[in-house]
Structures are given as structure tokens and as C-alpha cells.
Amino acid sequence: MEFITGKHLPRRTFIRGAGAAIALPFLDAMVPAGRPWRDPARLVGTTRLVCIEESMGSAGSNRWGDSQHLFSPEQVGRDFEIAPTSQLASLQEFQDYMTIISDTDCRMAEAYNADEIGGDHDRSTGVFLTQSHPKQTQGSDFFLGTSIDQLHAQRFGRDTALPSLELCLEGIDRGGGCAYNYHCAYTTSLAWASPNQPLPAIREPRVVFERLFGSGDSPEDRAARRRTDRSMIDWVASEVARLRRELGAVDRLALDEYVTHIREIERRIELVEARNSSGEEREMPEAPSGVPDDWEEHIRLMFDLQVLALQSDLTRVITFKTGFDQSNRSHPQSGTNKGVHGASHHGNVPADILDFNKINTYRTSQLGYFLAKMRDTMDGEASLLEKTAIVWGSPMADPNLHDHRRCPLIVMGHANGALEGGLHLRAPVGTPMANVFVDLMQRLGHDEIDSFGDSTGKFDLSFPGGVRSGGA
């Protein structure tokens, strides 16, 4: 076991047993005895960054939808009101943590020449965090840009076990190639470590869990442990018990809650695997057995794993792709049985725009689950939501037109005081989304970044800095 007995535990403390390794959350015992309180998680460079892409835009990015405030609030600045019909209505309790940025453009996702016309779905994901235009190729000479998450990971993620973590919810099979002569990497990869190095995303909760906790030295060890029907926590139980005796009452409670959370997530993963391997008909027979058929169950598992990864400081950088362009998955819980892609092509008919908005609203409501977990998870003297910047948005605006102007974008969390929150900002017409990312990255400690992608400057994520100065 890698911890120092006595009154002080290093921040990089792991408890181990039979191939499992559990990193600890921040505990009071990690503050050196006799020293004044100084939370190491507040130091420059420790702000977490989570980037979430919602594909296929928003009903509120349509001109009629914008007039109905289906995404953007009517008021600019502070004390804005989220309309009851807005897809953001379920996030109202987190308004103080939200900076909504309306009307920025992802023009790098637009066609540059005639043979690129129609390929918006095949470009969009790659463009979102790089704000670069992809080279049109099916070969290994694909070329894009470095994404903001990887810029953060390369500078501030080197002292964590996982410099970054890439996740997704849906698989894609285009039969060996994607459309419009684009490499599938542009369609599947949010994170780009360099212009020619896309990072693949993990879809299965089990794979994420084992990457975080190293629960077994080999696939055979992990399979053997699962056959014994013992939790990974059982394998380190004696070391957990020994550590508890070294901790104060507050830290013991924090450790118990953390371990219970890990065990609960592991059991949920096991239940999914057992259900999907039972021989009963599945809704998604093509999906691996570890992937829940239920979209809500899947996204919540993945959000819970992200909270664990951030809480234990195993990583400070996460990208999460919640769907794929042209996915026609339906969400009956939203109030419509239409598939996402079909509903996105609403023909500018108000009733159909509202149907698409129902899907937007349902999917966005799951973000509220994540924000609540982040708010309720303490890291030292403040919550993870206080110490994290969460980028949520889409590189597409009005999907009915395959439009990339007036894209939905929100930055959430207070990022260790770098973000005010409680703001709605409207950008001047023609403002690149990249301008927002320049200001965000500077606030996260990247002072050297004065341009990014197709930026023309920076868009100030404060008030009255980011105030609309152009027309509609």
C-alpha cells in the first residue's frame, strides 16, 4: 500500500490489492500537519476541463426557435430568465454556474469547395474543439488541428495518471469509410492531440472503470475476479480498513462514501452486463454487452465515472461525445417517438421544430444529473463544480439547413474563480466560436494562447465584456 503512516497522506495516494488500484479523493489528512490550510486543488493548473459535444444542433438555433427562446434567454447579461419551453429549463437550478454564449459560428465546419457540400455531418465533430477545417481525405494523411482539451492536458495533465480521458455513447460503422471522402476520424474523435493524431473514445462503462482503477493485472485476472462475484473493493478491503484507522472521523466518512460510490457503480455495470448476456432480446443487439440499451442509464453511468475520475484526480481533462451525427435513436421519454436525425430535419415547420426541441430538452436534462453530482462532490473546501470548467455545445446550429452559424454553447462551473457564471452573452454577428475558446483558455492558465483555429480575437466571458454589438 502506497501511503505514509502518520498525520500526512500524499495527494497521490493509492490503495492496492490483487491488481486493483484505488486513487483517493482529497482528504484533510493530505494537508501537512502544522501548516496553514492551502488546498492544492486550487493551485494554478489544477482546474479541470470537461468538454461535451451534443451533435446535430438545437431547435433554438433555428430563427423561429430563437424567437421563441428555445435555447437562448431573451435577456442578455445577469438575472436572465430561462423560458419554460427552453431546452435549458431543467438546468435552471444551476443558473449561477452557467455562462450561455449565443450566436457564435463554427465556420470551419462549412464546405470550402463544391465536393465538400453536404459533408457537414462528417466534419462537425472534429471541428468542435479544434475550430479547424479538416483535410478531405480517406487516407492516413488526415489533418485537422489540436483540440482545446489536449492543449490543457499537454500543459496541466502530465502529473496525473491519465492526462486525458475520451468517452462516447454511440458506436459508428460506416462499412470502412465515411461519406464525402472524409476519414472517419473526423466523425468519431472529439480529442486531437495533434493535427494528425485523433484520440479514440471509450463507449463501454466497464472499460472506463477498469482504466480508472486498474482492477486486475491482465484481462484474465479481471475475468477471474468477476467469476468469483467479488467486487473490486473486496480485493482491497483489508488495505481500506487499515487506512481508515489512520484517518480522522471526517476523513473516514469521506472515504466510506467514496468507496461505497465505487462499489455501487461497479454493481450497476455488472447488472447491465448480466442483463445483456441473458439471451433476452436487446434493443441494440449490435452493441457490446457492457453498453446499456437504455440511453439514460448509459449516460448517467458515464457521468458517474467522470465524477470519480475527477474526484480522485486521476485525470483533469475529459471529452464526452453524447451521440453521433445522423443517429436516428429515439427518446420516447422526451414526448415524441421521432428519431433524433429525422426530427432535426424539421422543414422549418413550428410543430416539428417543437418536436425536435422536446428531444433537445430531454437530452440536455441529463446534463443536470452531472452538474448535481459535481456540485455535491467536495474536493477540499469546495465542490468539483467550483473547480471545473465544463464546455457543452454543438458545432452545428440549425440542423435542418446543416447550418453552422448561431451554434449553441454553454460554459459551466466556476473554474476555480476564473468564470463568473450566471451570465447570458450574445456575440456580435459573425463571431467565431474560437474567440470564446481563446478567452476560456487564457482564464484556465494558457496565457500564451492569443489565437486559436479561425479566431479573430477573443470573446470576453464576463459582463459587460461579452455584449452583443451587432444585428440579428
Question: What does this 3D model show about the protein?
Answer:
The structure is a single chain. The protein has helices spanning 63-67, 120-130, 148-156, 185-188, 205-213, 219-227, 232-235, 237-244, 249-276, 295-311, 340-344, 350-376, 433-443, and strands at residues 14-17, 20-23, 48-53, 98-104, 165-168, 192-194, 197-198, 317-321, 378-379, 382-383, 388-393, 407-412, 423-426. It is globular, with a radius of gyration of 22 Å. The relative contact order is 0.21. The strands form four sheets. A seven-stranded mixed β-sheet has the order 5-8-3-11-12-4-13, sandwiched between helices. Strands 1-2 form a two-stranded antiparallel ribbon. It has 472 residues and is α/β, with parallel strands linked by helices. The chain folds into two domains: 1-37 and 213-287, no CATH class; 39-203 and 291-443, Alkaline Phosphatase, subunit A.
Number of self-contained structural domains: 2
Strand order of the largest sheet: 5-8-3-11-12-4-13
Major sheet description: 7 strands, mixed
Tell me, what is the CATH class of the largest domain?
Answer: Alpha Beta
Gyration radius, in Å: 22 Å
Query: Any low-confidence stretches, pLDDT <50, length ≥5?
Result: 1-7, 468-472
Instruction: Quickly give the CATH architecture of the largest domain.
Output: 3-Layer(aba) Sandwich
The helix content, as a percent range, equals 25-40%
Tally of contiguous helical segments: 13
Quaternary structure annotation: single chain
Class by SSE composition: alpha/beta
What is the beta-strand fraction? Answer: 5-15%
Run of helices and strands: EEEHEHHEHEEHHHHHHEHHEEEEEH
